[in-house]
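Why should sequence recovery work at all? Because a backbone constrains its sequence more than one might expect. Tight turns favour small or flexible residues, buried strands favour hydrophobic ones, and helices have their own preferences. The token representation captures these environments compactly. In the example below, the structure is given first.
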């Protein structure tokens, strides 16, 4: 099959197929004129590469998975090297999550400090009271009732409003 057909069936670009081939991840047969001739195995390999990329495994680390498939295995992760690739991807993802969690905590602290600066409520009074935290609604907050008072608003243009800055 032609590269365009492989790309279409694998839901990737022809550029991606060429890239995978340049890395030696797929090795199509060559026709007499030198053009590549892809087959069903190549479709399966390219789909596996795409799937692994979506879960965070870089293209360069897909080789162990592809070797499983090329060896005729039913599953691409039947080898220890595949499991090691999963672990590396998980470790990297865990590191990113921890870094983002730390950044989020810093932003929450900064937002809380800025929002309550000059407030009569002291920081020590707010500390440890999750119910007053800006991300958490009170447990006893009643659900609002729709009285239809805004039914006329869809499609209505909002007036131009000029706001002054607070700084």
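From this structural description, the recovered sequence reads:
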């Amino acid at each position: 099959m032609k590269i365009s057909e492989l790309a279409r069936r694998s839901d990737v670009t022809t550029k991606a197929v060429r890239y995978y081939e340049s890395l030696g991840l797929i090795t199509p047969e060559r026709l007499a004129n030198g053009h590549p001739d892809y087959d069903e195995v190549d479709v399966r390999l390219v789909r596996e590469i795409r799937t692994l990329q979506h879960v965070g495994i870089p293209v360069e680390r897909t080789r162990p998975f592809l070797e499983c498939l090329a060896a005729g295995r039913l599953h691409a992760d039947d080898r220890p090297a595949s499991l090691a690739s999963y672990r590396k991807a998980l470790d990297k993802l865990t590191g990113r999550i921890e870094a983002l969690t730390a950044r989020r905590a810093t932003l929450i602290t900064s937002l809380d400090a800025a929002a309550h600066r000059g407030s009569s409520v002291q920081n020590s009074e707010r500390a440890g009271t999750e119910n007053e935290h800006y991300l958490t609604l009170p447990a006893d907050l009643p659900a609002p009732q729709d009285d239809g008072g805004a039914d006329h608003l869809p499609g209505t243009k909002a007036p131009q409003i000029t706001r002054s800055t607070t700084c």
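A few observations help interpret the result. The helical segments are 3-10, 14-22, 40-54, 63-70, 80-116, 123-126.
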